[in-house]
Please model this.
Amino acid sequence: MRTRWDIFCTVVDNYGDIGIAWRLARGLAGEHGLDVRLWVDDLHAFQRIWPAIDAGADEQRSEGVTVRAWRTPFAAAEPAQVVIDAFGCTLPETYLAAMAEQSPPPVWINLEYLSAEPWVAEHHGLPSPHPRLPLTRYFFFPGYTPDTGGLLVEADLAERRAAFVRSGMPAFWRARGLEAPQADELRVSLFAYENPALPALLDAWAAEPRPVTCLVPEGRIIPQLAAWLSVAGLQAGEMHQRGALRLHILLFMDQDTYDQLLWACNLNFVRGEDSCVRAQWAARPLVWQAYPQADAAHWDKTDALLQHYTEGLEGEAAHAVSGMWRHWNGMTDAENMAVCWAAWRSQQAAIERHAEAWCGRLGLAGRLADKLVDFAENKLKSRVFSNP
Ligand code: TRH
Model:
């Protein structure tokens, strides 16, 4: 019989929580043949990244996963053998009580946010007993090194990307109303939170000697773009030109199509967690905007990833990458954006080579779904032996 897994996801804001939970659920069902049920409290957010989702359905099947609307009060449900609460979301009390009544109780895992900080490896896999119930929750930390939970990635991603790069790009651009890029053109995707550094970056692109095309999926950055263009608003499908810069507003895409955008562009501005990882797997240069946190905790995260990411990248190129990332995250105004951008441009070829090499090295951390399955199966086995 297939092992049953329940994944619980609350959408805090944006699309990262559901984006990661969905990617994981698809991988566990499709690649590991597990019986996966995904509980989501906001099916409208889910539908944005996966339009096949019916936002009104209590229960539906998609990609081999059973998707359940997580409503309050929570309907009685028999707990699965493995229970994941994504990003520390609080499980329904009735479900927790049902977990505690099972013998052996389910393996309960809290899937944490990704960070490149060194403390992650020390905390990965640690148990935490429930204060009242006979249950133990384990902390599972994704990460960039083999001693962490690894990174979300499909087994066939590199193959699909290579096939797309070989022959899929012309059709991709045509479907978005764009011609193939000119030889000296730079294509950039821009997925970002509101950012004070944006106008200066757009100015730098508009002043380029070569064409820059910026593809912007609908989202939080649109009002700032409209202000820079001095237009009242922007809709998907619109194109605006200022100097060398052409700005195209795109419809928000499903997760798989967004991957293709990352594969097709020369440079990707990404944010949060999931798009950042996907941009790294795209083997293209990226500029990351970390999800803003209280007390600027995201600056530590940015520096930690930068430190890892720039390993093996020589002096000026490493400086150019750090300069862009740090300036984009508001960590420094020692150099202005025009200077950071010029430095990045002058090092572009080295940064591109590095992005390819980095993508090759990423696999060393291991695949998150594989590691999660191993972790849960080991716990399940030890429970069977201690609860005959
Ligand atoms: O949307 P985000 O800002 O999510 C954030 C982060 O995950 C952050 O760590 C978390 O704490 C916070 O939410 C609550 O960025 P992220 O993580 O990149 O997620 C975006 C998802 O949206 C990702 O799965 C890719 C997907 N996406 C599409 O499917 N289509 C699109 O057109 C775009 C632009 C993104």
About this structure: The longest strand covers residues 4-9.
